[in-house]
Design a protein that fits this description.
Elements (H helix, E strand, L loop, with lengths): L2 H13 L2 H8 L3 H15 L4 E3 L4 E3 L1 H21 L12 E7 L5 H13 L4 E7 L1 H9 L5 E4 L7 E9 L1 E6 L19 E4 L5 H12 L5 E5 L3 H9 L4 E5 H4 L9 E5 L7 E8 L6 H16 L5
């Protein structure tokens, strides 16, 4: 067993897709499959259950995952033990980011970090917040951007907050309002987040408190699909206000209006798992992140 066997195992567990993993690791899919098969044969267990439609960890694979992560992190920390200069570090940091956000801070932080430490790679995985939290708990991410909502497993650095707006076709009657509230949407087809997002439940709860049964046309994590549906007059959508402010830049001829419910404020933090052993690269990034927030007057 070599360290590459464990690294490739973790990559497949991270993406649960052999094709995507092969692309991300820059090896051929047959080589990746062979490496995983070699590991399974050496361990004497099946690590993944593969069908035509999905890849899943087996119970044995899930049990092996924390052991593999521990060895990979320890190996790379030992490998970098003699590299006293942080500039010589060259590992990878894995960060999960939500699909629907206009998080401007993380883009700036990553850009500045790359300039400061050009040899450290950052790999971003874009998915829903609940999935990000699960990947973080499984040790497949170093950091995840989401609202931890008081979960004691995570330690977070608050970095961004945003209100919500309603996105409307440019000739929609609601564009005449200064802000939109639940009663205004009583007869509208609604396009909103999936259940991956806590705000999905908040929006539905808001409608219920106003005794409105909303017409949910679509639930999705794809903002492009949301906007396309609105642009073609299929309905109206909820999206973060900072994202909405960039609609023209993205090529959408749409109108947005602030939403009246202040409970729909989006709060984001950079989270790590308290109990996890960090790589030197991850520890360095966390220190850099905190300092960046302090230097730019943002609360960590």
């Amino acid at each position: 067993m070599e360290i590459r066997h464990l690294e490739y195992f973790m990559e497949v567990a991270r993406y649960l897709n052999f094709t995507k993993t092969a692309e991300r690791t820059h090896i051929s899919q047959p080589t990746l499959s062979r490496t995983i098969k070699e590991l399974e044969e050496e361990l004497g267990v099946q690590l993944f259950r593969r069908t035509k439609h999905e890849v899943r960890l087996t119970d044995a694979g899930a049990a092996f995952l924390p052991l593999a992560r521990e060895q990979v992190v320890a190996f790379h920390n030992l490998e970098g033990f003699g590299k006293g200069d942080d500039q010589k570090l060259c590992g990878t940091i894995y960060i999960g980011i939500p699909l629907i956000t206009a998080n401007t801070a993380i883009s700036a932080i990553l850009g500045d970090f790359k300039q400061a430490y050009p040899n450290i790679k950052v790999s971003l995985l874009e998915t829903g917040p609940k999935h990000i939290a699960k990947l973080l708990q499984d040790g497949l991410l170093d950091f995840g951007i989401f609202n931890p909502r008081g979960n004691p497993e995570f330690q977070g650095e608050w970095m961004e907050q945003d209100t919500h707006s309603v996105v409307l076709p440019k000739n929609h009657p609601l564009t005449q309002l200064e802000q939109v509230d639940y009663p205004d949407l009583r007869s509208e087809a609604i396009i909103l987040y999936t259940e991956e997002y806590v705000l999905h439940d908040k929006i539905l709860r808001g409608f219920a408190e106003h005794h409105i049964q909303p017409h949910i046309l679509l639930e999705t994590m794809q903002h492009d699909l949301m906007l396309s549906m609105v642009e073609h007059n299929n309905g109206v959508a909820f999206l973060p206000s900072k994202f909405c402010s960039k609609l023209k830049r993205y090529g959408y001829d749409l109108i947005f209006r602030p939403f009246a419910d202040s409970n729909l404020t989006l709060h984001l933090a950079l989270n790590s798992l308290k109990a996890a052993q960090s790589s030197r690269e991850a520890a360095l990034f966390q220190k850099f992140f905190r300092q960046w927030l302090a230097n730019h007057g943002q609360k960590g």
